[in-house]
Amino acid sequence: MNRSVTLPGNVAALMAVALAAASAGCTATEPEPKSTADAAPTPPPVVTRTPAPSTPPAPPEGTGEFGPVVARDGDVSAHAAVREAGGVLRVPVSVTNGGTVRAFYEVTVRVTGPDGYEATGSFATDTVGVYPGASWPTEVKVSMPGRDAPAEPKVEIARAEVDRH
Prior knowledge:
The chain is mainly beta. Helix content is 9%, strand content 38%. It has 1 helix and 9 strands, in the order αβββββββββ. The strands form 2 sheets. Strands 1, 2, 3, 4, 5 and 8 form a 6-stranded antiparallel β-sheet that branches. The longest helix has 15 residues, at 9-23. The model is unreliable at 56-60 (pLDDT under 50).
């Protein structure tokens, strides 16, 4: 069964233009290409190379992203305490496994100050441990009930037990 459709003149002309444009690689939204004789020569693209950023300078010895190291016991480093609201001291601690096998750490940090101020906080890396060469940054928050945090607390690592396996 053959059917032929007769289109009005303007629709047929539009379809013929669209088919010719499609076969020429043009779409209705693209302008018709100009002849090469009319076009000015296109300059070559400009390539600008941005130098790779240099590595940032290393922090001074004994400091890190948490500030100066104030106590160290083996792989465990405690950094200067930071005062927070409510008499709380936040002590950043970093553990860097210097061994050749995975290690699990149990650490207790003690903070002391004048007039008998003493507060401790602990953490453990018992879930997955710390892989050789890897670091485990954390923090311990300590406070002594009914006391404000001292202005110049003394931070020490009271216990740093390591189980390597």
